[in-house]
Amino acid sequence: MVKYILILLVGVIKLALGDPIPIVLWHGMGDACCLPFSLGPFKTFLEKEIPGVYVLSLKIGNSIAEDIEHGYFMSPNKQVAYVCRTLTSDPNLKNGFNAIGFSQGGQFLRAVVQRCGHKIPPLKNLITLGGQHQGVYGLPNCGALKHKSCDYLRYLLNYAAYYDWMQNWLVQATYWHDPLNEDLYKKKSAFLADINNELSVNKTYIRNLNKLEHFVMVKFDNDTIVQPGATEWFGFYVPGQAKKIQNLEQSDIFLKGRLGLRKMKMQSKLVFLSTPGNHLQFSEEWFITNIVKPYLLT
Ligand SMILES: *[C@@H]1O[C@H](CO)[C@@H](O)[C@H](O)[C@H]1NC(C)=O
Ligand SMILES: *[C@@H]1O[C@H](CO)[C@@H](O)[C@H](O)[C@H]1NC(C)=O
User: Fold this and answer.
1) What is the pLDDT of residues 69-103, one digit of tens each?
2) All domains of the chain in start order, with CATH
3) What does the radius of gyration of the chain's CA atoms come to, in whole angstroms?
4) Annotated active-site positions, please?
5) Is 144 in the pocket of ligand 2 (CB under 6 A)?
6) Which atom number of ligand 2 is nearest to the Cα of residue 221?
7) What is the pTM of this model?
8) Which of 18, 113, 155, 281 gets the most CB atoms within 10 Å of its CB?
């Protein structure tokens, strides 16, 4: 008897509190192969912290091998369209969800919001961990590694990133942002320049992005993978050179209203967080205090 009353009680409490808001995860490039962690344990961690939560870890393709390969070689535009369809057709997400993007998964999720925000269920909080919102200029660990092929790749990218075949072939070329060649970047970047409304302004992007309750950007203070680190907070090099950094508020994207970020800032929708450590390295404790409690449990 007592057992049934308890079960009933738990049911009533659950009903009163409502089910936790589902969470969608998009991993970074080479996850499951080269990054310090892959998303399996992270999903388990979330499920432990938020009992009953539905977590969808996006897989682009039919197998883990395909998923990893796509992280390098499937055009982000196709990946974004694929994810839009996945999110629209998942019945567990129909009442809305939160999303966490790891590394390049961060800017890809932002693209999903901007391009399909009017089709997918409402996305409440978008959290990007070490995302490259203004692209990158430099290769992971190249400074530290001093590896021959690394230098060769950088050389290749400096010259070839904006060739159409490269844009169609290597995912990372689509957010290569050469500050010495802003015009070329704007014209040729097959993904990022479009998502950042660099050439023309797509008002749907602005409207959809503004539907977010919060756009949380997490920067890793000691990141050696992403150059410049400021891109994780939507900053970048001052155009025309590759040393001096400008933050979001000093950029054309902000000042010329290309994405409506000034309005979002005034609405307190933009959140800038930082944590010590290298790319995607954070403690569970930090994550619970700064992300789970304020953004995933409400
Ligand atoms: C603006 O973005 C929407 C959503 O992705 C798209 O349907 C539309 O074609 C775009 N408009 C222009 C002018 O590119
Ligand atoms: C990490 O970055 C912070 C902030 O820039 C800096 O104060 C600290 O010395 C760095 N730590 C290491 C180990 O590089």
Assistant:
1) 777 677 889 999 999 999 999 999 999 999 999 98
2) 21-296 (3.40.50.1820)
3) 20
4) 103, 223, 279
5) no
6) 2
7) 0.87
8) 113
